[in-house]
Amino acid sequence: MPLTLYNTLTRRKEVFDPIDPHQVQMYYCGVTVYDYCHLGHARACIVWDTVRRYLKWRGYNVRYVQNFTDIDDKILNRARQEGTSMEAVAEFYIQAYFEDMARLNVMEADEYPRATHTIDGIKRLIHELEQNGNAYPTAGDVYYSVRSFPGYGKLSGQKLDEMQTGASGRVEATHEANQPQKRDPADFALWKSAKPDEPAWESPWGAGRPGWHIECSAMVRECFADASGKRLGDTIDIHAGGNDLIFPHHENEIAQSEAVTGKPLSRYWMHNGMVNVGGEKMSKSLGNFTTIRDLLDRKGIDPMVIRLFVLGASYRKPIDFTDEALTAAQNGWNTLKEGLLFGYEYGDRLEWHDREDAQTSILEQFQTAMDDDFNTSSGLAVLFEIAKALQREGNLLVHQGKTDAPPDTLKQQWQTLIELAQVLGLEAKPEDPTSTNGLSDAAIETEIQRRRDAKIVKNFAEADRIRNELQAQGITLIDKPGGETLWHRS
RNA sequence: GGCGGCAUAGCCAAGUGGUAAGGCAAGGGUCUGCAAAAUCCUCAUCCCCAGUUCGAAUCUGGGUGCCGCCUCCA
């Protein structure tokens, strides 16, 4: 069974067929660094991280490049507000980004190009566009002429003549008046002349800064060259990003790159759905966002719960962020975690020795699910089945002191679960055993004896009080038939 | 106005022609002083209408509702 994925460009699921059968070139349009990342960004990062992990598990080497947009009006505004520089703001939020993503277990990209580090490549590309007649300078600005590129609109399915400029209501009334030199309302800026007090770079068109879309075209070109400088980046395999980037951003990238190279910029265009709140897209401008830090630190959510929340849905569909959904993910993670910790908790006791290989039939089941356009929801069902079984065996060991399941089988199941969870970036680490809580074993035994005495005289109120008190301190009691009481720290 | 997408139980979510995965939650039985654990059982004909078909949640046509994009966006 081949791996298939949905290609926005063709609006179909297609068999994945990379240019080099061993090496996948993947570019993810990353974030503009002017604030902390919110759950919407987290979703995108987790989704593409998972795609990357799965491709690796499937046997491909993946070159994964993700950009930072560090030239932008919003960064500039922030810098003005805080009385600092654009560089300082960008640097601060890039570091914050790295911290957040490490916690979410998002693997580091192979390269993180930044707009400010790509100025030469950007200028080169604009120059080539100009020479080809796709770009025109006016009064210090340079615009891309959308009418000069016949394929304009092929990604988003838009036709220039049917597009309604300004339909989103976001273009200010004065906007057009400020850009009288544009030949067509749909033309977009490749280079913007410097305004006073703004960071600027020298260029053949005067001091200025690059427009938004051009950076990605330049970065793809530069980041996928081999050691000898031979360009691999004319066409890459996968170009990914949020579906809010399809138009205009990715459409414009195609126009810029393909006008110069005459080759497809990317074979596959993949787009993740948005995170919604109350049916509306989570976004900075609506103010309905929750930052990753807020979830992790203020609400104390386990990062893996966020991964599970994200992977529970198809990456292309919108997901609604609600307390209920979060609770469900939380509970679900508890089950998976118990499964993932099974080997650490009971491995010694079950006298596991030799390494068992993962269970092929289950791996195949998982692969079938994921091969269908990265169907993580179906894939997770495979993990839950194993985790549930291990959770059950773990409980039997704790409560009955034994299990009838063969240790080898359990080990095999466990290793299968660990392997698959890793593909989804889900990991659970055993608790640090040094952080045991206050009560000594002897003190616990004393309390249990007192409770036993209370039970003998049928003083159940007192017995329950002692049990509750221990439970509050993380000690769980288990009454066995015959009056014996087991206990364990939770 | 244009383009794209979605509609499956209380909630989330798979399934894309052969009789509804999985998760979360809920209810009940056994066991237990009560719990815990285990175990058993219950919990949807898939937005509506009309077609195609031996057979449709799945295909076709027509509705209805919701969402995203149309130069800030993951």
UniProtKB/TrEMBL annotation:
**What's the source species for this entry?**
Phormidesmis priestleyi ULC007
The listed location of motif 'HIGH' region is 31-41
Tell me the residue numbers annotated for binding ATP: 284
- Please indicate the residue ranges that the annotation assigns to the motif 'KMSKS' region: 281-285
Say which domain of life the source belongs to. Answer: Bacteria
User: What are its cofactors?
Assistant: Zn(2+)
Q: Which reaction does it catalyse?
A: tRNA(Cys) + L-cysteine + ATP = L-cysteinyl-tRNA(Cys) + AMP + diphosphate
Q: Name one GO cellular component term.
A: cytosol
Q: What is this protein called?
A: Cysteine--tRNA ligase
Molecular-function annotations in GO = ATP binding; cysteine-tRNA ligase activity; zinc ion binding
Question: Whom does it interact with, and what assembly results?
Answer: Monomer.
Cross-referenced SUPFAM superfamilies: Anticodon-binding domain of a subclass of class I aminoacyl-tRNA synthetases, Nucleotidylyl transferase
- Give residues annotated as binding Zn(2+): 29, 216, 249, 253
Statement: the UniProt record of this protein carries the keyword Manganese: no
Q: Which residues cross the membrane?
A: none
Instruction: State the UniProt keywords alphabetically.
Output: Aminoacyl-tRNA synthetase, ATP-binding, Cytoplasm, Ligase, Metal-binding, Nucleotide-binding, Protein biosynthesis, Zinc
Similarity-based family: Belongs to the class-I aminoacyl-tRNA synthetase family.
Q: Which residues form a coiled coil?
A: none
Instruction: Give its localization.
Output: Cytoplasm
> Which EC class heads this enzyme's classification?
ligase
* Cysteinyl-tRNA synthetase class Ia DALR domain boundaries: 365-434
GO BP term (any one): cysteinyl-tRNA aminoacylation
Residue segments, region Disordered = 163-185
EC number in record: 6.1.1.16
- Keyword Nucleotide-binding annotated: yes
User: Which Pfam families is this protein grouped with?
Assistant: DALR_2 (PF09190), tRNA-synt_1e (PF01406)
Q: How is the cofactor bound?
A: Binds 1 zinc ion per subunit.
